[in-house]
Records
---
Amino acid sequence: DAKTTQPPSMDCAEGRAANLPCNHSTISGNEYVYWYRQIHSQGPQYIIHGLKNNETNEMASLIITEDRKSSTLILPHATLRDTAVYYCIVPTSGTYKYIFGTGTRLKVLA
Amino acid sequence: NAGVTQTPKFQVLKTGQSMTLQCAQDMNHEYMSWYRQDPGMGLRLIHYSVGAGITDQGEVPNGYNVSRSTTEDFPLRLLSAAPSQTSVYFCASTSRWGAIEAFFGQGTRLTVV
């Protein structure tokens, strides 16, 4: 699996955009970038995924650099309920094996 | 619309006891996996299966057995529980075709004393 690197923690003011970076410099051409989050000790929740184009859904936007070596998850208007650990994962193509790092602990401040 | 169901939610075992953690999914997903999460850590892959009758080891397989006799069920067996296996265990399932999200269960919190 491509190794991912994320900052251990970030703070964000409520209502502001939260930008969570991820480095995945060893990513291969056909490997997707996935983002999940874990609230408290619940099971991880899927947020978004992408290959090379920017993606947006009802939860977030995913910006992938042109060289695909890094990406940024954007929560456009963070709320207190977005406080969670966010994981960036790049599973080896065709394996579906998720290797979780320690993620980024996002704290949204009132 | 149950998704991934894990049982039990909580369990306390004595060292040396055996038990099976159950995982069932109703989405006809081919791929299922088991993870453990220790305090303050990310999830670590224990075992996974790409379909009925096929299983393989993940990052931390020692002390655990799995089997996959049906598409729906993927039980995780602890043969002889040790305090080091105290953890929260998560089961996940994914459709094998295409870049599809993984669905996680709500976890089983296991304490070995």
---
Amino acid sequence: GEQVEQLPSILRVQEGSSASINCTYENSASNYFPWYKQEPGENPKLIIDIRSNMERKQTQGLIVLLDKKAKRFSLHITDTQPGDSAMYFCAASAYGQGKLIFGQGTKLSIKP
Amino acid sequence: EAAVTQSPRNKVAVTGGKVTLSCNQTNNHNNMYWYRQDTGHGLRLIHYSYGAGSTEKGDIPDGYKASRPSQENFSLILELATPSQTSVYFCASGDAWGQDTQYFGPGTRLLVL
């Protein structure tokens, strides 16, 4: 199987709190896991990625965790701001596959 | 920043008509991709290409053809458009066989009546 499942589909959090999005993948050969952010009316843009030789990566208020045994990876946004409101997509790719498999997306809304 | 452009940006087509969506990238990337985006389905891969002259079927290729005449250009062709193909279509380019950043174009909004 090649599916990537992403949950939740809708997430509303209070400004200043943390938001977490979870993804699971089926292909045990997957070794590259990017996250894309898409603002309304815009195209998706890469915000952070992690490769299978790492378990954790952090940049500018974003944390990605990877659990290869459970075939699960997650995005954590700390100290959320109104500008974090957007659609977020996780994806997975296996070496030599030549493509990304995207999750279904999470619509994140930050409540003031 | 990598540059990917798409044309047209908006298109209204009739059922049974032919539609061609064009994509151009100036990044000299080997790989190019066509996705469609529908609510509840995320980004689904239609066709992709490893380089000029190559096209590969993605996850939902039925009803679509693709053409990669050059490194820069990648087209998506709907020979007989149907209302179920109403969607937003994104082109993307990237390298490293899908294991690095993909740069997306601005999208084409297609309505098939």
